[in-house]
């Protein structure tokens, strides 16, 4: 079975343009970091840097799954509420049912995977536009989270080891003075796995092929519907992992939390250079984009910029990133 690939010149062009975009994103992150460091002496404090890392962890994990979906020229608006549903399922399993913590974590991740698979079936099998299908799943997940939780948060007060497992620091006992929470290490581990899947596996190759030219992939014998469903399911697994992480971060499963996280995840993916038109993107770029979002938000908060203006700034950054993507696409034609 042959996987449809662009011509050699196009491949080199895409690789070169992608590398330039990642370099620009990284350069922008450095500039933002230097600016806030000079603007406020509190920015460089270890506690604040740690806060940026923790804030990046949840959005970063959500964005990893979103990267695969956007590369296929799709979109998933449900990752925020699916994350919430996964957190509630984790809380219900660990606290309400008294199941072992690994089982609760597996339940949360599996919940995300099932929701992602449902999205994939709706998009691939029933040909519902991704925007509409995932918008519907967004509301379903949001409603189920409220129903399962009984409209009330589920606290992990009876299982403090759950919070310690994720918000504790294994580095603290190995490297003196290092107290980077495990949640950050989980994000980087997830990024490594995502990068391997995207660049070294058949799922990753088909992800690019479908996003580059879905019809050509279909005519080459690729079961586009099945692989597209697999991509959405993978995105759901990352959303489920995000649910486990945010539950540990706030030490509770908040059924109303998570709405709006999908926009931050999509923003991180776009800022990192993944094209909304599909066929191009990278995990490294997404991680950089997630750090740009969290660093901007943190720096503006330290400078006492009102929250409404923080949202405006992030929106402007996303618009600029999308515009740059459009310019790149025009130059490739």
Structure description:
The chain has helices at 8-39, 46-71, 79-96, 101-124, 130-149, 160-167, 182-200, 202-212, 214-219, 224-250, 261-271, 283-302, 307-332; strands at residues 154-155, 252-253. It contains 13 helices and two strands; from the N terminus they run H-H-H-H-H-E-H-H-H-H-H-E-H-H-H. The longest helix has 32 residues, at 8-39. Residues 4-12 have low confidence and may be disordered. The protein is mainly α. It has one domain (8-332): Orthogonal Bundle (ABC transporter involved in vitamin B12 uptake, BtuC). Helix 1 runs parallel beside helix 12, helix 3 runs parallel beside helix 5 and helix 12 (283-302) packs antiparallel against helix 13. A two-stranded antiparallel sheet has the order 1-2. The chain is 74% helix and 1% strand.
Write the layout of secondary structure elements.
Layout: H1 8-39, H2 46-71, H3 79-96, H4 101-124, H5 130-149, E1 154-155, H6 160-167, H7 182-200, H8 202-212, H9 214-219, H10 224-250, E2 252-253, H11 261-271, H12 283-302, H13 307-332
Antiparallel strand pairs: 1-2
